[in-house]
Amino acid sequence: MLRVLTGLLVLGAVTAEDCCSSEDRHELQALWKEIWSAAFTGRRVQVAQAVFSDLFERDPASKNLFKRVNVDDMNSPEFRAHCIRVVNGLDTLIGLLDDTKTLKQQLDHLADQHAARDGITAAHFDEIANSFARVMPQVSGCFNPDAWNRCFNKLAHAIAAKLH
Amino acid sequence: MEKMLVSVFVLGLVAMVTADCGAMERLKVKQQWAEVYGDGNERVSFGEAVWKGIFHREPATRSLFTRVNGENVHSPEFRAHSSRVLGGLDMCVSLLDDEATLNAQLAHLNGQHKERGIPANYFKILGEVLMEVVPAKLGRCFDHDAWESCYGVIADGISK
């Protein structure tokens, strides 16, 4: 009996690991709202720049993927605009977390956009997920890493679905 | 002298009516947009109101959106499309006070829209609809002149 129970608990832990429950989603929306506002764009750029800096530090080669948006000058208008697009894409997804069918369509669209870019691999999404997980607690007062990771990984995997 | 005074007065009026999208207007529009755009499901209904307004005003625009199921504004495909368009607008509005980055972003959107062959007057229609839907949501705290001039900056950048 105990063994079955332990087994169930372990199973529960495993499935909870990759599930983004509705509690998780609301947690994510709440903490995102806290740091995000159209009235404060500076934050958006700074958060994205910190995420990309972390990524480039860990995987310098990935910098080559962003030549087109002037990655060599991370403060250039082109790279700042790119940063805005990335966090805005994330913002849109977080806003759609309660509308599963629309979310799926949007993830599909992003998957196509990324599949069309040469050199991006699924591993890059794991890397950037790690970078977000390191940056977010620095700007969010009450960060819940488990909820964040469960939902973020789910989104990231869906976007990377058409990559190798 | 009197004539002179009158023309100064008239010029002053003109300046008031056609307020340009200055630094203060930009901050105001950003703030008001943040309130209108909201989050989560609010955005979905806001988007629905915008698109219904567009299709009502100019039914021919619908044919541009067959790829994203424009026939049904409630479909997940169209909702996702709507969230991308509003997200694009959100980026521009939020960049209003960072001109260099705003211009880089407008250039990016300009390329995307040229690719799809969107006529420039559609941005005018979107603007007209926004001037109805936004105040409906904001109530009396809507600054029409600031919105009109700042939306103009964005629309011109995307559709030039």
Which tags fit this structure?
heterodimer; A: 164 residues; Globin-like; 7 helices; 0% strand; globular; B: 160 residues; mainly alpha; Globin (chain A); iron ion binding (chain A)
What fold name stands as the CATH topology of chain A?
Globin-like
Sheet/helix structural class of chain B: mainly alpha
Number of domains of chain B: 1
Structural class of chain A: mainly alpha
State the total count of DSSP E strands of chain A: 0
Helical run tally of chain B:
7
Number of helices of chain A: 7
Strand content of chain A: under 5%
Oligomer: heterodimer
CATH architectural type of chain B: Orthogonal Bundle
User: Which second-level CATH architecture of chain A applies?
Assistant: Orthogonal Bundle
Radius of gyration of chain B using CA atoms only: 17 Å
GO cellular component, one term (chain B): hemoglobin complex
Keywords (chain B): Disulfide bond, Heme, Iron, Metal-binding, Oxygen transport, Signal, Transport
Family (chain B): Belongs to the globin family.
Binding site for heme b (chain B): 113
Q: What does this protein look like?
A:
Chain B: Residues 20-160 form the Globin domain. Chain B: Pfam families: Globin. Chain B: One of its GO terms (molecular function) is oxygen carrier activity. The complex is a heterodimer of chains A (164) and B (160). Chain A is an all-alpha fold. Chain A has a single domain, classed as Globin-like, CATH 1.10.490.10. Chain A contains 7 helices and no strands. The relative contact order of chain A is 0.16. Chain B has 160 residues and is mainly alpha-helical. Chain B has one domain: Globin-like, CATH 1.10.490. In chain B, α3 crosses α4 (76-94) and α6 (121-138) runs antiparallel to α7. Chain B is globular. Mean pLDDT of chain B is 89; it is low at 13-17. The interface between A and B is medium-sized, with 33 and 31 residues.
